[in-house]
Amino acid sequence: MKTFGIKPDIKAGEDSLSFLKTLPYKKYFIVTDDMMVQLKLTDKIIENLNSDCKIKIFSKVEPNPTVDIVQKGIVDFITFEPECVIALGGGSPIDACKGILYFGDKIFNLLGKENKRLFIAIPTTSGTGSEVTSYSVITNGSSKIALADDKMLPNIAILNPEFMKTLPKKVVADTGMDVLTHALEAYVSKNSNPITDAMAMEAMKIIFENLFDHYKDRSILEPREKVQYASCMAGAAFNNSSLGINHSIAHSIGAKFHIPHGRANAILLPYIIEVNSNADIRYAKVAHALGLPASSAAEGKCALKTWIEIMKEKMGIQKSLKEYGVDFEEFRKLIPDILIDIKKDICTTYNPNQLSDEEYIRLLLKVYYGE
Fold first, then answer.
1. Fold match between 9-164 and 169-369?
2. Domain ranges of the chain
3. Which tens digit of pLDDT belongs to each residue from 193-232?
4. How far apart are CA 234 and CA 265, in angstroms?
């Protein structure tokens, strides 16, 4: 049996923050990072909350949030006992907030308390789709832990394109390719269905038509807003269909070699398309929908892979781990650990092809050398 859930409520547009003015709560807990505070984006949130409320800001989140950061956030969350929790930022603050709520709620239950808090996610990048998913990725040493629980699904997502105006080009490239990877893996997943297919395909069309324009000039509203919608749609798609080994491997190499998640996904994507032979027809359907040559499955798959490689080059994304700067000896020594991570990762389950250890090693060497 396949299940599709459509959550959370989504408030979108340049005036979407005004929704916060309708909230009646007295205690708000904001989870974010120091950059959001420095850029005064937290002020934009506070300006829209009722004037007599109490606010606590937890801004210790760093890229690839760790177990230690989540533990510190849990202490503040339990001590403050908020009625409403707001996650503000890219994937890291939202994932950290989910981890805080996931474990914090368990502690409240052990204490015999019921914490009926509203959870609002406000993304400031267009990439992770975390504002509409029940997934969270937390770093533990050199590994990443993927959590999955509907209790981590936000009640409300606020999509405000104004937050994307000042994003650096590199962030737009990484997060945009993350959207594409989410949508493509959702589409070829063994757990996909017609609803996830429709959302994933539309997200890919939007990325095809708008990502590079958004990359070139973040001040233009239309591509900025459309890429934000694509991120949300791709997130909703993979939340229901799951992902694949592109993400399993990205989780591992991202943690071990300190590669931003979207960048790791982008480096991997052409090589993953190549090995997923069971999805050749689906890849060709994507190519056809994007207007690429696709008279046969082989031609469509090749055209899709070529377009992705061209997009990566245009946005300055490396072709290989070697080009990124990963040391080969360090990489070689960690291959057994990477294989263990891949097998443990929940994303591996629904990948179109199940690979042997030997096939994974060949794949990883191709990703390293760019062959």
1. no
2. 9-164, 169-369
3. 999 999 999 999 999 999 999 999 999 999 999 999 999 9
4. 14
CATH class of 169-369: mainly alpha
pTM more than 0.85: yes
Q: In degrees rounded to 5, what are phi and psi of residue 148?
A: -140, 115
Any idea which residue has 């474990």 for tokens? 103
Residues 6+ apart with CB under 8 A from 104: 73, 74, 77, 78, 115
**What's the distance, CA 55 to chain centroid?**
27
Of 3.40.50.1970, 3.90.1150.10, 3.30.565.10, 1.10.3720.10, the CATH number of 9-164 is 3.40.50.1970
Nearest to 84 by CA among 13, 158, 154, 7: 154
Give the residue among 262, 45, 260, 41 at the shortest CA–CA distance from 163: 41
The pLDDT value recorded for residue 4 is 67
Query: 290: which DSSP letter?
Result: T
**pLDDT tens digit string along 232-287?**
999 999 999 999 999 999 999 999 999 999 999 999 999 999 999 999 999 999 99
Tokens of 24: 């009646």
CA distances from 316 to 4, 168, 169, 172 (A): 36, 13, 10, 11
pLDDT digits (tens, 9 = 90+) for 85-142: 999 999 899 999 999 999 988 888 787 777 778 999 999 998 889 999 998 988 888 7
Question: Which amino acid, 126?
Answer: S
C-alpha 204/C-alpha 206 separation (Å) is 5
